[in-house]
Amino acid sequence: MPGLKDVKNKIEGVSKTSQITKAMHMVASAKLRGAEEKMESFRPYAEKFAAAMHNLSGGVSNNQPLMQVREVDSVELIVITSDRGLCGSFNANIVAKAQQLIDQFEAEGKEVTLITVGNKANQAFKRSGKIRKSHKDIMGTFQMFNARQISQSTMTNFLLGEADEVRLVYARFVSMAKQQATATTLLPIQPPEQQEGTEEGTDNKGKGAGSAVEYIYEPDPEQIMDGLLPLHLNVQVYHAMIEVAAGEHAARMAAMDNATNACGDIIKELTQLYNKARQAAITGDLMDIVGGAEALKG
Amino acid sequence: MAQIYLEVVTPKGSVVSEDVDIVTAPGVDGEFGVLANHAPLLSAIKTGTLIFKKDKGEKYLMVSAGFAEVSNNKITFLVETAEYGHDIDVDRALQAKERAEKRLARDIAHADDLDRIRAEAALQRSVARLAVAQRTTI
Fold it and tell me: Are residues B113 and B63 in the same domain?
């Protein structure tokens, strides 16, 4: 049986840990609210953008350099994770997904390069030697120009023929309780009819009639497309970054909630142990006293 | 007078959504005006001033590069930033303008540099901000 003092120390330690996890839970929930707000305010822009792309694609031939489908010899993966840990298996899932893709592509004899966003992705792939560019400590800022930097760099790479395909690996924010690690194709850009099919399903239906209308293009469709496609990449990357940021906080909330509960359970068990040990000590003392008294009587 | 529904959307949220009489926008090939029941149009927008009139009141909005779409008597602007004159920090815009000008003067050798492109964009934005701020206070 462990000593009384040891158990007491342990209880104290665990309860301090639970205070920390509780605080982290609260911080994460506050940050999640901020991230969700960002997501909400970005949604109309993304939706309108998809609709405009849809309308435009009707009037343009698909021979844009960014839409060019080539034989794939090299693939670039943009892996987006959070900057910090302590959020359950959130980052591990994304990294595992990326690793799975890397293995798959390499088995097919394709060359793989990586752009990592977030410290955790960088840490995970630092030793692989595949990282072409790594962005750290930008997840919390929600700045559009961060996304622009990333998409510009990968776009140049694609246009130079260094990468024939670019995939985005991140976690979709499905719900508070669920973040799904997914991979989507960023480049070459697919015509929007097939893409966004699930996400913008309702929007497309509403705009279905609109796409048949003849638009006046100013200056002309090709030039608009030239400007629109890079922006489309920004929007995709930015969207993925926001989703990861929101998902990180949701995952951390869940992880910290679990940790706080686990702390409670441990404290309960330890308290029982403590009480047992205390009782045993008292019983032992009583036996001594009673034994002593008996001896004096005799 | 027939009105057209104006919507200005940025990644940070919707800035304007209301019925207006006329919209004047800075297209890449020059300013253009849009009245109610305009034919469907898709145009690239450059950094500049967006003007819309409603009930004889005129409002100015600084917009950065993006796109405008007209369909079904509705005009939608997709831009990265959109600000009203009274939201613009004039001192900051002035500082940004100076900074961008300095940078441009220094980097005159590298014409295609990304930094230069960025500085030019920053300069355009600050000039547009100042123009809008000035018009709003008059």
Answer: no
